[in-house]
């Protein structure tokens, strides 16, 4: 368990609202640098802006792909991922084919994830795979996590934050048990306080996605906005 001083390095400081303004993104970047968050996570439109601001600060640039539905052809996800990395993204958070997970189609999941993983890894970036736990049964969550591991993902991630629900301690623990000790687990969606973050990390999370990063490290209660 990290101490309060190092907890900031677990946080992807996040702003994914479709109406996010340039000034809001710049504020997000300034906060990330000030508090030494792990990354700034934004929609692809803002990747180059974030990269310019946080370059050489130690803060990474993260972008989402196939977001928030995951219902995008694999080749489009690959194109989007390559573009985001070319714009400066160090990390990519992709949404899986949720329908395939619900249908138990593991091979389809592996193929979708692997194609993006290969595109991301060939540019030395990291891939996190969003399984959208709120829409899946436990068996489907396990299937999706197994597919992510088989496909070569670096992390599995709970949620987009756009379909209700969000990260739970139970889901994080289930994901950690499924992927084992060598794959990252990102708890995202509804993590709004220091107590929330500590509980997720204790359950096995190695990264926290939150729009309330400042509140978390300040010991305050943040909002649920993503």
From TrEMBL:
Its EC number is 4.1.2.4. Its main location: cytoplasm. Pathway: Carbohydrate degradation; 2-deoxy-D-ribose 1-phosphate degradation; D-glyceraldehyde 3-phosphate and acetaldehyde from 2-deoxy-alpha-D-ribose 1-phosphate: step 2/2. Transmembrane segments: none annotated. GO terms for biological process: 2-deoxyribose 1-phosphate catabolic process; carbohydrate catabolic process; deoxyribonucleotide catabolic process. Pfam families: DeoC. It is found in: Cytoplasm. It comes from the Bacteria. One of its GO terms (molecular function) is deoxyribose-phosphate aldolase activity. It is an enzyme of class 4 (lyase). Keywords: Cytoplasm, Lyase, Schiff base. One of its GO terms (cellular component) is cytoplasm. It catalyses: 2-deoxy-D-ribose 5-phosphate = D-glyceraldehyde 3-phosphate + acetaldehyde. The active site is at 93 (proton donor/acceptor), 157 (schiff-base intermediate with acetaldehyde), 186 (proton donor/acceptor). HAMAP family: DeoC_type1 (MF_00114). Catalyzes a reversible aldol reaction between acetaldehyde and D-glyceraldehyde 3-phosphate to generate 2-deoxy-D-ribose 5-phosphate. Belongs to the DeoC/FbaB aldolase family. DeoC type 1 subfamily. This is Deoxyribose-phosphate aldolase.
């Amino acid at each position: 368990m990290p101490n309060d001083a190092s907890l900031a390095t677990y946080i992807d400081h996040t702003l994914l609202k479709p109406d996010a303004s340039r000034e809001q993104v710049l504020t997000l970047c300034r906060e990330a640098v000030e508090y030494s968050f792990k990354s700034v996570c934004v929609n692809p439109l803002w990747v180059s802006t974030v990269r310019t601001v946080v370059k050489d600060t130690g803060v990474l640039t993260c972008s989402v792909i196939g977001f928030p539905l995951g219902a995008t052809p694999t080749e489009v996800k690959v194109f989007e991922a390559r573009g985001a990395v070319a714009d400066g993204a160090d990390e990519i958070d992709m949404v899986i084919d949720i329908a395939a997970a619900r249908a138990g189609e593991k091979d389809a999941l592996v193929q979708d994830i692997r194609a993006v993983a290969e595109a991301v890894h060939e540019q030395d970036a990291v891939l996190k795979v969003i399984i959208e736990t709120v829409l899946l049964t436990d068996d489907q969550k396990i299937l999706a996590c197994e597919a992510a591991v088989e496909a070569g993902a670096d992390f599995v991630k709970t949620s987009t934050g756009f379909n209700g629900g969000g990260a739970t301690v139970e889901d994080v623990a289930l994901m950690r048990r499924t992927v084992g000790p060598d794959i990252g687990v990102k708890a995202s969606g509804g993590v709004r306080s220091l107590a929330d973050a500590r509980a997720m990390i204790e359950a096995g999370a190695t990264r926290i996605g939150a729009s309330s990063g400042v509140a978390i490290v300040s010991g305050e209660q943040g909002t649920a906005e993503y």
